[in-house]
Amino acid sequence: MISYEKNLFIIEMKHSSYVFTGGDTPWGVYWGEKLYGEELGYLVGKREHSSFDPDLNRHREEYGFWDSYNPLESCLKVNYPATRQLDMKFQDYTVQTEEGKETLTLRFRNSYSPLTAEVIYEVYPEFDIIGRSMRLVNEGDTVVIENLKSAAVSIPHQDKYRVRYLSGRWTGESHINDHYLTNGAFTIQSRTGNTGPHFNPAFALDNGKADEKSGNVWFGLLGYSGNWQITFERTTFQDVRVLGGISNFDFSYTLKAGESIRTPVMTVGFTTGGYGAMSRTLHAFENRHILPARKTGRVLYNSWEATLFDVRAESQKELAKRAAGMGVELFVIDDGWFGQRHSDKAGLGDWYVNRDKFPRGLGELITYVKELGMDFGIWVEPESVNPDSDLYRNHPNWVYRFENREPLEARNQYTLNLSKPEVKQLILDFMTKLLGENRDITFVKWDMNKTLTDVSAGNTETDKELWYRHVKTLYEIWAELRSRFPHVEFETCSGGGSRVDLGILRYADQCWPSDNTDAYSRLAIQEGFSYFYAPRIMTAWVTDASDGDGRKYERPYSYRFHSSMMGMLGIGADISRFSEETLEEFAGYIAEYKEIRETVQYGQQYRLSSLRESPLHAVEYVREDGEDIVIFTFHQGFCHDAVEPRVYPEGLEPDGVYQVEGMEEKLHGSTLMKAGLETGLGGDFDSRMFRIRRV
Ligand code: GLA
To answer: Exposed (0-12), middle (13-18) or buried (19+): which is 626, by Cβ within 10 Å?
Structure first.
C-alpha cells in the first residue's frame, strides 16, 4: 500500500516498509523490516553540520537533481546554454494499481524551463521489491543530459556495511566478492558497452553478519545491458546511499523539445531472511514479472563444442540422430552455418546459408530434426561483422569508428553501429527472413563476442549518445522480433555471460552464463549466478570440457550431469564419438532431469553448503507445491582423515512425512532438517543427487 501523510511517502509491502519525505528534495527516512511508517515524522527535521555541510538530509536524497549543491553523486545533471543548474520543484504524485503491482509517480518541474521529471516507484508488495526509474520529459529548449541515473536508495545505519557482488572475466564469470564500505565511494561498473564479464549489475548489502539463512539484506539489480554504474557512498556522517544507472563515462544525451527519455529500472528489495531468502525472492520475482513467459525449459543439444565452425548438414544430422535417441528436445546449430564462416576470421555479417555446408538449404536439416521429434534452434551474432565479409566490404561506414584510425579488432571483428536506421533494418530483415522462411526455428541464441570500442560515427556532438542508442536499439529489435515471432524463444549470450541483466531478460527466456563448461568450475560460477538470477534462466551443458585440453581431470559423467542439472540442462559434448553405452548413460540422466525439471526450474532454491566454506557443495530445490525435493551434492578437497559430510535439507514441512528415494523408512521434515542425511560421498569429484517426495 502506498500513502502520503504529513509530508511522508509510506510504501508498505508484505514484510517491509520504505519511507521517504515529500518536498523538492525527497530523502530516505527508513527502509527495512515493516513498522508503522506514519509514525516516523519524529525523525524528520533539518540536519546541518556547518557551512560546509548545510543540509545533511541531502546525503540521503531519493533521487538527486543536481542544483549546484550536493556533495554526493547526483542522479541527474544537465546543461542548458545559459546554466548547468536544475531547480526542480515537486508538483504532484499519482498512484496506479494493477494486479500484483502499485506504481507511485512523483512529478517534478524545473522552475525556469518546461522540463518534467517523473520519479517512478513500481512496487511489488508480495515480493518486497520496488522498481525505481525516472522519466524526463522536455517540452522546452534543447537540453543536454550529462548524468542520468535510475535512482538512489539509502541504507539505515549499521555497524558495518558489507557489499556482496559478482565479479569475474571471460570463462570465470559471476564469482562472489565482498567489500566493506569505508568512507568514500565504491563503484562497480561496465564501460565496455555491454553488461560485461567483469561485474554484474547486482548487489546485496548487509552488516557483515547475514548468512544464507538469516540477517537483513538490502539488494538491487540494474536492468541495463550497456555502460552502467552502481556506486555505494558512505559519508563521514555515516549515511550510506546506493545509486545506480547509466554510467557517466563518455555519456551525454541531447533531449530536444517534445522528446523524453526513461532510465533503466533499478530493482531494489529487502529481506530479513539472509542471502537465501533474497535469491528465492528474486527468482520468483523474475519468473513472474521480468521474463517474457513461463515455459518449461527444453533439454537442448548444441553442436558448438563438438564441431566448432564446421557445421555441415550431414554431420549435424548424425549428431541430431544421436541427440534425439538420448531424449534431447531442442537441437541447436551454433556459429558457422552462414557466409564464408569457416573460422572466426571471416563471414560474420553475411547472413546467407552456406551452400557448401548446406547444399539443400537449412530446411533439409530442420525437417530432419523435426522428424526426429526435436525442435530446432540457431545461433546468430547480428551486432558484429568481420572485416573479411561482404557486409563490411559493401558498408565500411556501418561500423563504429573514429575518423583518424582503424577500429580495434577483437576476435577479428568490429561492431555495427546499431543507431543507424539502415543497420537496424538490416538486422530486422535478415532475422525476419530467417525466422519467417523457417517457421520451425523456435529458438535463437543471440551472441555478442566483442566489447564495444571506437564508439563513434564521426560526430562529436552526438557520439556520446551511441553507447545508449546501441542498447536502446538492441531492445527495440528484440521486442520487435518477439512480437513478430511469439513462438520463438531467445537466449542471451555474450562470449559466455557478458550480457546477463534484468534489462535483456525482459526479452530473453534464458542465458548462457559462461563459456567455461567444466562441471567443477561451473559450481562456483553457478553459485554466484544463483544469488541474483533464477535457475530457469541458467543454461548448463554437459560437455567434454577438460578432457581435451592436455590437463586430464576426472569428471565422471554423473558429476557433469549433476552440475548441469542445477539449471537448464543442455548437452554440448561430441556425441558422435560416444559408444552405445555412453549414449544410454546420457539418456538415463536426461530422463531423470525431465522428471525433476519443474522442481529445478521453478522451485525454491536453497544453497545448503558451498565449496567456498566447506568440502561439500549442496544445492536443494523444493517444487512450488512442496511435494517434490531434489538435492545435488558434490565433494571436493577430500583428505585421508575427512569425515563424510552430511547434508541438511531446508524448506520442508516440519510435520510433513517424506520419503527419501533409496531409503526404506519414511521421515518427518523436522527429522530430515535437523538430523540431516548421510551423503555417502567418497572423494573428489564424487556427486550424488537426492530425491525426496512428500507422502
Ligand atoms: C561465443 C559463445 C559460444 C559460441 C561461440 C561461437 O564464444 O559464448 O557458446 O556460440 O561464441 O562463435
So the answer is: middle
Please list the active-site residues.
447, 515
Tell me which residue range forms the domain holding 673. 608-694
> What CA–CA distances, in Å, run from 129 to 203, 527, 561?
14, 22, 34
Q: Is residue 586 part of a domain?
A: no
For 118-122, 546-550, 561-565, 656-660, which range has the lowest pLDDT when averaged over its residues?
A: 546-550
Asked if 245 and 120 count as a contact pair (C-beta separation under 8 A), the reply is: no
Tracing cell 534452434 back to the chain, one arrives at 377
Among 521, 496, 514, which residue's Cα sits nearest to residue 634? Answer: 521
Grid coordinates representing 100 are 500484483
Cβ burial 321-349 (10 Å sphere, 16+ → b, else e): ebbbebbbbbbbbbbbbbbbbbebbbbbb
266, 290, 314 - which closes a domain: 290
pLDDT tens-digit map of 521-561: 999 999 999 999 999 999 999 999 865 455 556 789 999 99
> How many angstroms does the Cα of residue 447 sit away from the middle of ligand 1?
7
**Distance from the CA of 570 to the center of ligand 1, in angstroms?**
15
Going by alpha carbons, the residue nearest to atom 1 of ligand 1 is 495
- List the beta strands (DSSP E) in 514-603: 539-542, 568-571
- Residue whose CA is closest, atom 7 of ligand 1? 495
φ/ψ of 255, rounded to 5, equals -110, 110
| Domain-terminating residue out of 290, 318, 347 | 290
Hey, how many other C-beta atoms are within 10 angstroms of the C-beta on 92? Answer: 9
Contact (CB, 8 A) for 556 and 689: no
Q: CA quadruple 169, 174, 180, 184: dihedral positive or negative? A: positive
Mean pLDDT value across residues 422-430: 98
Task: Work out the pLDDT band at 224, boundaries 50, 70, 90.
Answer: very high
Atom number in ligand 1 closest to CA 512? 8
Q: Ligand 1 pocket by C-beta < 6 Å: which residues? A: 304, 334-335, 379, 447, 449, 493, 495-496, 512, 515
The DSSP code sequence of 114-143 is -EEEEEEEEEEGGGTEEEEEEEEEE-SS-E
Please tell me the total count of domains within the chain. Answer: 3
Instruction: Calculate how far, in angstroms, residue 304's C-alpha sits from the geometric centre of ligand 1.
Output: 7
| H/E element, 670 | helix 669-675
Cell of 308: 566448432
